Amino acid sequence: MDLSSKIALPVLQLIVIVGLAPLVKGFINKIEARFQNRRGPSIFQPYYNLIKLLRKDAVVSETASWIFRATPYVTFISILIIALLVPVLSSAVPANFTGDVILIIYLFALGRFFLALSSLDTGSAFGGMGGMREMMVSTMAEPALMLSVFTVSLATGSTNLGNITSTMVDQSTILLNPSLFLAFAALAIVIIAEAGRIPVDNPFTHLELTMIHEGMILEFSGRYLALIEWASSMKLLLLLTILVNTFLPWGIARDMTFPAMLISFALYVVKIGFFAFLIVILEMSFAKLRIFRVPNLLGTALVLSILAIISLYVVG
Amino acid sequence: MAEHLFILSIILFATGSLFALCFYGWQRVGNYISLIFAAIASCFGIATAVVVLSGGSPVHIDFHLLLPIIKYNFLLDPLSAYFILTISVISFVACIYSLGYINLYVGKRDIRFLGFIYNLFLLSMILVVSANNAFVFMIVWELMTFLSYFLVIFEHENKENRKAGLMYIIMAHIGSGLLAIAFFIMFTYAGSFSFDDFRQVASQIPAVYKNIIFFLVLVGFGIKAGIFPLHLWLPMAHPAAPSNVSMIMSGVMIKTAIYGFIRFYFEFVTPCPPWWGVIILIFGAGSALLGILYALQERDIKTMLAYSSVENIGIILIGIGLSMIFRSYNLMALSSLAMIAGLYHLINHAVFKCLLFGCAGNIYYSTHTKNIEELGGLIKRLQVTAPLFLVAALSISAIPPLNGFMSEWLIFQSLLNGFNIPSVLIKIETIICGAVVALTGALVATCFIRAFGISFLALPRTEHAKHAKEVPVIMYVSMGLLAGLCVFMGVFPARIMMTVNHVSSHLVGINIIKSITAYDWMQTKIVQTNFTGISPKSAAVFGLMLLAITFGALTAIRPRFARRFYETWTCGISPEPRLEYTGAAFSRPFAVIFKGILRPKLDVAKVYSVPNFFVKSMTYVGGVTSIFESYLYTPVSNFVLKASDRVRWIHTGNIHVYLAYIFVTLIILIMFFR
Amino acid sequence: MTHQIIVNSRTVDILAVLMLMSTIVLIGSSRLRVCIWAYALRSFVLALVSGLIAYFSGIHHIYVATGVSIALKVIVIPGFLFYIINKIKIKEDVESFINYTMSLFIACGLILIAYYSTQSILTFENVFMRHCLPVSLAITLLGFFVMISRKKAITQILGLLAMEDGLFFAALSTSYGMPLVVELGVFFDILVSVIIMGIYVYRIKETFDTIDTDVLRELRE
Fold it and tell me: Are C162 and C24 in contact (CB under 8 A)?
């Protein structure tokens, strides 16, 4: 790739991820409202919310320290770095040789570390509860996430997402492997846990006792809240992107020509929309689990991911 | 050249220790002088290591002092040099830290012995990793144990500390005894005590004796390292010692046991069968998981850090075990990769554990308490210690771009490469191990979020914490050095990898430098394996660029962004410390999830003012049971006590009976050796 | 092997794994209705698999087995089980002797055992539909485990049905089914036993007001 495409691809990718993330949230909200027989907010409502918040001042707790004020930036920047490591429109990752899937998982952990710290920072019990629950859910989700990602890496011979995607596109019979099917199931459960959707966490609740992610961000306001909400919607979009471009990579652009990128973008939007729709159906069909039942669900995901790798090793 | 530096550092350590002893009146000055000598000696140690590691060939040093029977052989090969480097760096920082820390003890107790023993302790560790003779090794090993015992019971008024020291010295001696047996077995095959001869006979030992040596070494060095069933002394001894001693014990002393493992399994009893590596892998994974589960439940910072050391030793052993497995299947390049992962984690852990103990020492210095439930809000009082603790907490949780992340990444890459192993059963074990490492990584993050959050953030919970003052400059400057090292080692991993690769190539026999480094878009060196490449530096550069862009965009949207400060909303009451989340609340759910292992106990006692109706007060006592103590140690110690009771009849107290014993033994010896 | 055969066998493998996943749901879920739906799903997928195998191999009597499967195991038996549950109005929690995490680990271990013990057969090159044998063994073992560890009689029947599914699948994938007479006999055996179990469960509930086998153990003298 020549220099202009080296600069163009990261910029384009960042614009797509940053720009599309609130739309995904808005789309999910709208479809869910329709299912509940309501009109629902416009699908551009999250954008309006973000612009409103960015223009406001912030109220910060007196008890909080510089960690509270640094957290929104840390979370936002770490998600942006992940956005550069994931293949979105093209199977060539913009920041090649910078990182692989393990770096992505630990960058998510970086954001979560600071969010949990800032939830303890304000000295309110709700924050502590949210932080504790978030750590519980993510701790139980991490082994399943690692193992299902490892299954995919072992099947394709690399941990770099760009290489995985290009290998998948080149040799599509890899996809018919039942181990990958198990890995997909495990990864789907983990993504629901990480992104904080029902049945693990309720993103619409206002009751502090039922919140996980919302509990952690209770004290943020103004620009800080905008950055954190944007980061969490980008997190959902990135997790869906990883799922989509790893397991259903058809249509992704192999080179940087304009028509290829356009088709890739259109297919990307369609695939993300389809998975967003599936999330809505899931949210409509299940109730939120009690917090101590969530490790059971994630344990099932862990068993599925262990089986995925074992069947890959034993059967091939 | 290297031997001159080495001898110089030995001399400096020894003379420095004497200085502390000499000054009775000006104890502080005596200690200062001895610590400065020790710091300079550490610099010479670093220089020695650098000389050997940058391409020097192994250097033999032989002394002939005192008794000519004992040959004082020392060897500086890349492995020893790497360990000397680790020990010297940590002891340099610890000595500078101690210059400030001993102010806690000046005037309150006699600190001459502290300086004296401290220097000799550091010296003994350097000698342990460079000894080339089994006799010398055992002498210096025992010396190290004794000296650390005295340091552990330095605050001997406290009964807990004495008990901890007793437990420590008993277990360490059992370990040394087993090691002595292992050395004797090697002696019978090699004919001398020299390690060089041991290396020669490696292939001639029959398999039965090799297995016996394997188990003896596993338990013997395992006790010192703190592997999971044998770790009981660690959480008792490390908190009992003063902080500047704990940082050395936890940072480097337990690593000398890893040195012993590597020497034995890679040089003395090669070639190893695969099941040895599998056992090490299983013990490593078990230590990692159990260590962090217990760490999560602790209230005392130093006990928590001690358990965390158990966890990190587990991870290092996972790397070493994988290396042994790959080696036994002749996959030398992968063995080298796994060994690099293990050794890299070793030096990383030394750095951030020392930093953590140093910050814990700072907290103790300012607030005189180690219980995190009594702290809080320290980030506003200890304004320099807090970021240092944060850096250490981020490093140990393997958060990029710090150094812990690189070694975890390498461990994961080695585990992924397990698919090359021919045996399906071992492949399944590497996968389970991978799940355990992922789980422990997340648990470590939780543990240190809890430690940092409850101690430093929110409101202070007691008066101690409210009036804490920042520690003397020298204490946080030394810790700052370590924090800088954490960041440096995380952002520039390729240089460290080249050094570690030199060590592993010497051990395993293959130099994989070509395949593990490459160049990224900034034309800087990065690390790569057969799966992918990684460059934390470019991630950091991207991060900084994006931060600048974001900040610029946000300022453009609202240039006059202001923050207003107000108290936290707590449903109408004024915020007070009792409303905050406690450490126990943070970690109790994990005890419930893992209740099969942790067996949480709960005691709720109610005091009624009117029986069965009005409760006057309620007490809630929760905790976890230590299953090793109840199922392993207590039966063993009961058995030993009962057995000793049976044998007690030999001691009649009557001198004639004792003379009769000697007489009978003499007759038997005469008849036997006629 | 040709591309088509690879695709065919991989499809059957994926369906086999789907069956395994629904059996894991049987172990992992805590509601009785979900377990019965999982059984219905597994039977449907099994019928699909036998239809596909009949189509690929051209052996026609498997189609009969497919048809009977769909009729009996997808429609009749789950319907009958739902009818029983509605009639006896029990608490719909799945109660087990072993706690959840432990039973999940045991299930994982059983599946590992299934994969590990069939591994030596799978090293031959021209075996296709490679996942079917371990999966069928795993489903059988998991069914047995469910029978051992659950308290309610209905979940024990579900375990028995899982065992039968596993054995049928094993026979189907390795030797293209047993003789038709044997298969029909097994089907009707299963149908009769489920009906008898249903009647008994109803009677027991009427008489003793519980179908918890732990409580029913008190009856022995």
Answer: no
